[in-house]
């Protein structure tokens, strides 16, 4: 099942790896591989990317960060292909993403002269950007009967789906709430009535998709390859201002 019905799909700039992700998912359809195995694969790819940053192999770093993004899409695709959605996979994916984001930003701080405070604020900004995008996207998915594994408000531990452990879901949900709860609350405080407004237009969602993790990793990769590693953290810190601009547009027109 697609995340959105065909008539409501938009150009997602962060989802450039989807075609390759689908190929990977279909190639694994009749194997013993599970979405969790693919998630572990993107964790490994992300860590290799970090190692390459620390050792100045920036072309390889860019490759593995982008490959991480592709595998990040492939785990969800595999769950849909095998028709085995799970909350275990959903929360493991998110927990792995935020921890890898933190490690990537710390590695960029380590190899540049950037202030640690800029690193911390840039990381907070990165997460706020991603949270706003996910917030608007999940609202669309729920409104138009798309993929419902993600919820607009993650306030209650979900009941484990068939074939997964409730204990694993409980643990991963608590980790998710601990790591993401503050960002969810901040975005909700900025735009609490987003779910009651008019459906967000495709052009708007395409613009907000620059906040998606795939696009963020692409920006990091390109800047590394072009020799702009010292500008990456300041860029994400300054780009956080677009959160307020997008929220303002949503409130004013939609």
TrEMBL record:
GO molecular function, one term: phosphotransferase activity, for other substituted phosphate groups
Transmembrane segments: 32-51, 91-109, 115-138, 203-225, 231-249
GO CC entries: membrane
Record keyword Metal-binding present: no
Protein name, UniProt field: CDP-alcohol phosphatidyltransferase
Family: Belongs to the CDP-alcohol phosphatidyltransferase class-I family.
Lineage: Bacteria, Pseudomonadati, Bacteroidota, Flavobacteriia, Flavobacteriales
Record keywords: Membrane, Transferase, Transmembrane, Transmembrane helix
Native source species: Nonlabens arenilitoris
InterPro entries for this protein: CDP-OH_P_trans (IPR000462), CDP-OH_PTrfase_TM_dom (IPR043130), CDP_ALCOHOL_P_TRANSF_CS (IPR048254)
GO biological process: phospholipid biosynthetic process
């Amino acid at each position: 099942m697609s995340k959105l019905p065909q008539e409501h799909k938009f150009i997602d700039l962060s989802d450039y790896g989807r075609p390759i992700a689908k190929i990977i998912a279909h190639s694994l359809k009749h194997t013993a591989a599970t979405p969790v195995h693919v998630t572990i694969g993107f964790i490994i790819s992300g860590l290799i990317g970090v190692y390459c940053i620390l050792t100045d192999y920036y072309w390889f770093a860019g490759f593995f960060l982008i490959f991480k993004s592709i595998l990040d899409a492939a785990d969800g695709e595999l769950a849909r292909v095998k028709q085995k959605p799970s909350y275990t996979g959903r929360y493991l994916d998110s927990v792995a993403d935020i921890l890898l984001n933190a490690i990537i930003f710390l590695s960029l701080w380590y190899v540049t002269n950037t202030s640690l405070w800029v690193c911390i604020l840039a990381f907070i900004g990165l997460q706020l950007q991603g949270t706003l995008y996910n917030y608007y996207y999940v609202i669309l998915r729920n409104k138009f009967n798309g993929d419902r594994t993600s919820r607009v408000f993650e306030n209650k531990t979900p009941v484990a789906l068939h074939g997964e452990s409730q204990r694993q879901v409980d643990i991963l949900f608590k980790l998710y709430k601990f790591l993401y709860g503050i960002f969810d609350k901040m975005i909700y405080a900025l735009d609490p009535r987003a779910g009651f407004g008019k459906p967000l237009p495709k052009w708007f969602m395409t613009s907000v998709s620059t906040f998606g993790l795939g696009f963020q990793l692409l920006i990091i990769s390109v800047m590394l390859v072009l020799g702009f590693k010292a500008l990456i953290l300041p860029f994400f810190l300054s780009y956080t201002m677009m959160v307020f601009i997008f929220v303002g547009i949503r409130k004013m027109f939609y």
